[in-house]
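One such shown below:
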Amino acid sequence: MLCFCPFMRSASGIILPEPRTAILPLARTVCRLKSNHKKRTFMRRPDNQPLPPVEKLPALSMGLRGCEAEQWLDGPDAFGDRAMRTRQLAEKQDLLSEQASEVFVCLHDGKAAALEASQTIAAHLHHYHNMTISTEQAACLRQISALIPEDVLVLTAPDNTAVEPDWVLTAASLCFPSHWRLSEKIGQSITAIHTPVPEFADTLARPVNRFFTTMQSGVLSQRLNWSVQTDDRLFAPTRPSPMEAIAHSAEEWGTIIHVRIERQCFYKLPESGAVIFTIRTSLAPLSRFRQQPEFIKAVLKQASKLSSAFSAYKNIAEVEEGLRVWIDKHLPEPT
């Protein structure tokens, strides 16, 4: 089982170190992991690491796969952009300082789970990234989330006897939303949160809730999600204004259209039974892929498979022409 919490435990719960101390070394306090991992510093994406397999990401599919403990947080950018992490951490600091109510909420029902989530993340960062984490940071989801590029959401099962409960978002540090507002979703169930997503209620709501309910504590899972947008905003709670109906060159489309990838990870906490849901966002313009135009062709191919409702939801119609123009320029059909 994965267990990152470095704090002593008692019958009443977790006992924190003295406030003046930082988190202690984990040599004797980290639980045994599923596989042996060495301490390491921030991961960089290898130059030969393949781009995300968008061709294998159908619109309505959970697409879950396993995730090693060391790969969970603060890893390399999906597109190999080594400056993106710096940008994300800077934007997080600004948002959490200047627009805190927009990007951070913790309901009363989520406080215990949020504390456990914070401590778990703190222990992970200490063990795998050699970070020195203060007790104050480890006890505060808002503070610990500012140290990593990922958004952190906490979901809890409602206090009822339902065999398959509809899990609820009860705490979140969400600095990089893609066309949704935390204030509108906090306290809602998984099904309600995804109301705008076509076919979600009929196709995915039950499997997602069943997955959360039956998750084994301490096991990490991950999935990828993709979308396209017409600006470079990471903090994108609203959709941009519709584009003017004018022609653009391939070079212009290369700076307008951005591909957005979300690496989503799930971890069930052993004490509260809540689920940590982390989102690592990668964002890059088409021009980033001049040497790998096949990736954009795969994006367009996946877009063409979407239903009309899902295409509208992902805003494909507005950018489909631009994708084709750019591909024709950089990956012409053989003659």
